[in-house]
């Protein structure tokens, strides 16, 4: 089982030919938009979505009436007709809703890209709108009690009745095993959130702008679910984000420098669960991230050393650090040493990561803010701009069926 | 450990055709695991097809020895992310059973400072006042 992963050898003989890939180098992200990221928007999700979409369309130099497709992933409260009616779009020819929650953070871009590459739509808008700070918080256990006498699905039967109701807990189990197998210390883990907080200090749109955090602050923060401390956990955010996807050919007539998709992939390796990924021979790694990464490198015809900047979906800091291992930025089990002191992921480091502040310090827009930052790095407009970016990597959430994209100039 | 607060019910498992046998066995104070008689392989969580031989008529329930070791664990220490039916702190352990599958459960009579990866444990069962029967793990001699 999972032989490719166990042997660290990705087979290429049984995958589609790279030359036949219709997305690679032919599709681009051409517009990005967002609302303010706050703890209490005072508005509903539809209202926020309309603003972010309008901003993305304006940024691209398009009109709202140009949009003929929409894509998102599950756990979204908006229904497509609500958006179409409010935006006043005559007709939508393509729509999608990918499974996997935050794992689909980049799968959405891939599905939209597939739609424009195959001529099903001209301009697909990918959107996400949340009131997770003031409204329902997906990751918070006691929200469930009022309406959930029975665990939601058969697989949750092995967790929810145990008071084991939060993604932090589910991930803590494989995180603890990773710490145990490789002697990872809490001090080492702390550098991930500390560096992300540094990035957020240059980003006035981030929710932690003006609120720096030292490594000592991290160490003194309370334990939430051992082994995870408060500052290992992502933000709660009210806000919306959107981006527009079209062909590279159409992008030539638009306002912005396109962020061209060099590769996009989903991954759902066997024995995937929703965070409770406990039956694989190895649980101290993120198999889904490894598969997504290998496919991205294969299609983009590059390797980790060619990537200039990365936005890794980090709902908790261990999820970000183990992805560094699985994407080949360091050896498996070396994530703790790699992150020590933080320099390797700072702006001049080996692989600058989550340069807007990421999910821990910018906002928790289910990864859409990471895609947007990945685009900014290609355009050269990030608040923490890395020099001469050729290739910008973004990933979807770990511990679930996942995804990733590589953007290029 | 796993002290329950009276008056707040814990969630019940969602049962379907695949896992009904597992939960029925727990009701009878037995831990059973899905097994493929053709591959002689244990499978968890239970499913309608053996992922090795793709057979749908070789799946059966086999009683587990109930013995395993703690493979990993977490401790809920803050009300922020805990479920309010449990007294804090409470642990969830992932136990690697002798048969291979890893089962998550709460613990019985294991103090927080005794919890460690590799600790030998065995299944025990409790009938709760609300009519549910739950599987817990307690220490055992190695």
Structure, explained:
The complex is a heterodimer of chains A (409) and B (142). In chain A, helix 6 packs across helix 10. Chain A is globular, with a radius of gyration of 20 Å. Chain A is built from 13 helices and eleven strands. Chain A starts with a helix and ends with a strand. By secondary structure, chain A is an alpha/beta fold. In chain A, the strands form two sheets. Chain A has a nine-stranded mixed beta sheet. In chain A, strands 5-6 form a two-stranded antiparallel ribbon. Chain B has two domains: 50 residues, no CATH class; 78 residues, OB fold (Dihydrolipoamide Acetyltransferase, E2P), CATH 2.40.50. Chain B is built from one helix and eight strands; from the N terminus they run H-E-E-E-E-E-E-E-E. At the A-B interface, helix 5 and strand 5 of A face strand 4, strand 5 and strand 6 of B.
Give the topology, please.
The complex is a heterodimer of chains A (409) and B (142).
Chain A: H1 3-7, E1 27-34, H2 45-60, E2 69-73, H3 80-87, E3 94-98, H4 107-117, E4 124-131, H5 167-182, H6 186-200, H7 215-220, E5 223-226, E6 228-229, E7 238-247, H8 248-251, E8 259-267, H9 287-300, E9 309-311, H10 317-326, H11 335-339, H12 358-361, H13 368-379, E10 391-395, E11 402-408
Parallel strand pairs in A: 2-3, 2-4, 9-10
Antiparallel strand pairs in A: 1-7, 1-8, 4-7, 5-6, 8-11, 10-11
Helix pairs in contact in A: 6-10
Chain B: H1 20-27, E1 32-36, E2 41-43, E3 59-63, E4 67-76, E5 90-97, E6 102-107, E7 120-127, E8 133-139
